[in-house]
């Protein structure tokens, strides 16, 4: 994570050898974690740490190759990731709208209200430059991503509801994200509503639709896609974060401390409000956990792609680059804690057994 690397290792950024050693340390730590089931899920995060460290020390290698600007890879990589998401989905994922209407309605309303409002509250405290501030709002205005589904599974939450919420929120994103940005971020940067809507459609909706078609046509005959696409998606996210970190290195060095704190507050408050609003509404524990994770975990990849489309990846794109890895750390930790907590009624079942 960009911000954490800055906080811990800022004094060493003038030492190139330190960058190599630091990256090697994170890689070896990630490999060691793969052998420990309880913390295996954190290994990918430390791979991101390694990639970010290298791009912070040697940003020139991640900005261009010859005359080719590496930022041009961000949108195609995001499209590949979204295609992978679509290939793991089916029309059945939308049946939850009918089967669990209350959970879907509350989840969507919370997702597109809590996180944008928290972003505005965070910006009231942290006086970021306009384009950095717009990036924080962009994160809050984005839908949830596949990471929330994984965390819901780990947390023993309502996985069917999680998948449905992610699918519905993603379909609503072409309307809701530009609308929220227009109302909340217009004072920081110029927001072109229709251009942003089209960007989301071509980066998210079209690739997901193609993935759904492939899934439908394959009908289980292309199992290799299911094995390959998660790996491709993880690699794509790592490359996107590395490119954004290199592009915004100077800005990160100036305000990395504040940005990581702001993103952490944004993320944790989303979990907390999402959970307790559901508790107040009398929803069951599994649903509360699900909506908490869906609200707190945003699609940082989409936000990064939109920052690229705006031509402001080195500024607007910084908050998504920090938020993305951070939410995986906090989400994994929360899901692991919830997994160890008994659900209501489990004690009764054990007594009967």
Please name the CATH architecture.
Up-down Bundle
Shape summary: globular
Low-confidence runs: 6-12, 348-353
- How many helix segments? 16
H and E order: HHHEEHHHHHHHHHHHHH
Reported for the largest beta sheet, the result is: 2 strands, antiparallel
For the CA atoms, what is the radius of gyration?
20 Å
Please indicate the percent range of residues in DSSP E strands (runs of 2 or more). under 5%
| Biggest sheet: strand arrangement | 1-2
CATH topology: Na+/H+ antiporter like fold
Number of domains: 1
- The CATH class assignment is Mainly Alpha
- What's the average pLDDT? 82
Distance between the termini: 45 Å
Count the beta strands: 2
**Class by SSE composition:** mainly alpha
What does this structure look like?
This protein is an all-alpha fold and 353 residues long. α2 (16-34) packs antiparallel against α3 (43-57). It has helices at 2-9, 16-34, 43-57, 74-87, 96-99, 101-125, 130-140, 146-154, 159-184, 193-218, 223-247, 249-280, 285-296, 300-309, 318-340, 346-352; strands at residues 64-65, 68-69. The longest helix is centred in the last third of the chain and has 32 residues, at 249-280. It has one domain (65-342): Na+/H+ antiporter like fold (Up-down Bundle). β1 and β2 form a beta hairpin. It is globular and about 55 Å long. A two-stranded antiparallel ribbon has the order 1-2. Mean pLDDT is 82; it is low at 6-12 and 348-353.
What's this, in brief?
With 353 residues, the protein is mostly helical. The protein has helices spanning 2-9, 16-34, 43-57, 74-87, 96-99, 101-125, 130-140, 146-154, 159-184, 193-218, 223-247, 249-280, 285-296, 300-309, 318-340, 346-352; strands at residues 64-65, 68-69.
């Amino acid at each position: 994570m960009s911000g954490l690397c800055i906080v811990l290792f800022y004094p060493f950024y003038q030492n190139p050898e330190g960058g190599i050693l630091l990256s090697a340390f994170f890689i070896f730590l990630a490999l060691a974690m793969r052998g420990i089931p309880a913390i295996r899920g954190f290994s990918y995060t430390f791979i991101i740490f390694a990639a970010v460290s290298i791009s912070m020390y040697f940003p020139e290698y991640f900005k261009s190759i010859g005359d080719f600007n590496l930022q041009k890879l961000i949108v195609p990589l995001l499209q590949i990731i979204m295609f992978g998401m679509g290939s793991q989905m089916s029309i059945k994922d939308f049946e939850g709208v009918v089967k669990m209407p209350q959970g879907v309605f509350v989840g969507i309303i919370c997702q597109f209200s809590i996180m944008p409002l928290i972003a505005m509250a965070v910006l009231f405290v942290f006086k970021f430059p306009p384009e950095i501030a717009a990036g924080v709002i962009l994160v809050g205005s984005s839908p949830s991503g596949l990471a929330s589904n994984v965390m819901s599974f780990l947390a023993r939450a309502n996985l069917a509801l999680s998948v449905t919420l992610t699918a519905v929120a993603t379909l609503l994103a072409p309307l809701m994200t530009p609308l929220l940005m227009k109302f909340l971020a217009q004072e920081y940067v110029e927001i072109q509503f229709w251009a942003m809507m089209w960007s989301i459609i071509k980066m998210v909706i079209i690739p997901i639709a193609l993935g759904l078609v492939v899934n439908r046509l394959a009908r289980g005959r292309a199992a290799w896609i299911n094995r390959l696409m998660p790996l491709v998606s993880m690699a794509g996210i790592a490359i996107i974060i590395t490119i954004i970190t290199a592009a915004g290195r100077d800005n990160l060095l100036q305000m990395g401390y504040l940005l990581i704190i702001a993103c952490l507050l944004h993320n944790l408050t989303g979990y907390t409000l999402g959970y307790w609003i559901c508790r107040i509404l009398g929803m069951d524990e599994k649903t509360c956990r699900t909506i908490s994770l869906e609200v707190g975990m945003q699609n940082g990849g989409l936000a990064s792609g939109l920052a690229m489309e705006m031509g402001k990846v080195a500024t607007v794109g910084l908050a998504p680059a920090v938020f993305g890895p951070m939410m995986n750390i906090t989400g994994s930790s929360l899901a692991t804690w919830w997994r160890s907590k008994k659900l209501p009624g489990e004690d009764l079942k054990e007594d009967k057994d």
